[in-house]
Amino acid sequence: MSEKRTIDARGTFCPGPLMELIAGIKQAEIGDELEVLSTDEGSANDIPEWVNKVGHEVVGTSEAAGVWHVVVRKTK
Amino acid sequence: MSEKICVIVTSGSREKLQMAAMLASVGAVSGAEVLVFLSMNGLPPFVRSSAGAAENEGELGRLMAEKKAPPFLQLFEQAVELGDAKVHPCSMAMDVMGIGKDDLLGFLGEPLGLTKFLSEADGAQTWTF
């Protein structure tokens, strides 16, 4: 059964949130969702670029109170 | 054929080491084969006794040290662990400094000479810092 995990990368800067996501994806199973929390707007924009380039799936991106939430599904 | 990125680091400034580490790590986790060549003042921060030591060139280096930017050593190590990156010390710089492979951080690859580096860099996009 697929799981959802949160990666709290608040307070760090590019490419910290991306690298933390990638470390999480390595450990995840196909179909799992990972939600990255980031206070760095550059990372919120850059993570979907990376996800599209390597072929995973962006489930959604949202911002609340200065924290970006990027949800990614591992597809391969 | 996958993309190949070569990165030459000859500067010991925090800003340049950081930019090189960002390029190497993001490139390596995006499907590129990355080869980093450390020479001149770019090598001492990878020596165990002076690991991570870097001079700030200016405002950005100071800010990065003050805030929580991922340290360049961590990013280079992640490039190797999470992606297809190799970080090689320059054999000439090691000779000049009088150090051996055991004096360097564990994630570094074998010492490389310029001839070998040039043949590796043939046809690759190459960045210098």
Based on the model shown, name its key terms.
heterodimer; A: 76 residues; alpha+beta; Translation Initiation Factor IF3; 2 helices; 4 strands; globular; B: 129 residues; alpha/beta; Hypothetical Protein Ychn, Chain: A
Topology:
The complex is a heterodimer of chains A (76) and B (129).
Chain A: E1 4-8, H1 16-27, E2 33-38, H2 41-54, E3 57-64, E4 67-73
Chain B: E1 4-9, H1 14-28, E2 33-38, H2 59-66, H3 72-82, E3 85-89, H4 91-97, H5 114-121, E4 125-128
Parallel strand pairs in B: 1-2, 1-4, 2-3
Outline the structure in words.
The complex is a heterodimer of chains A (76) and B (129). Chain A is built from two helices and four strands; from the N terminus they run E-H-E-H-E-E. Chain A has 76 residues and is an alpha+beta fold. Chain A has a single domain, classed as Translation Initiation Factor IF3 (2-Layer Sandwich). A four-stranded mixed β-sheet of chain A has the order 1-2-4-3, covered by helices on one side. The radius of gyration of chain A is 11 Å and the shape is globular. The mean pLDDT of chain A is 94. Chain B is α/β, with parallel strands linked by helices and 129 residues long. Chain B has one domain: Hypothetical Protein Ychn, Chain: A (3-Layer(aba) Sandwich). Chain B has five helices and four strands; from the N terminus they run E-H-E-H-H-E-H-H-E. Chain B has a four-stranded parallel β-sheet, with helices on both faces. In chain B, helix 1 links the parallel strand 1 and strand 2. The longest helix of chain B is centred in the N-terminal third of the chain and has 15 residues. In chain B, 39% of the residues are buried. The mean pLDDT of chain B is 95. Classes of the chains: A alpha+beta (76), B alpha/beta (129). At the A-B interface, helix 1 and helix 2 of A face helix 1 and helix 3 of B. Chain A: Pfam families: TusA. Chain A: InterPro entries: TusA-like (IPR001455), TusA-like_sf (IPR036868). Chain A: It comes from Acidihalobacter ferrooxydans. Chain A: Belongs to the sulfur carrier protein TusA family. Chain A: This is UPF0033 domain-containing protein.
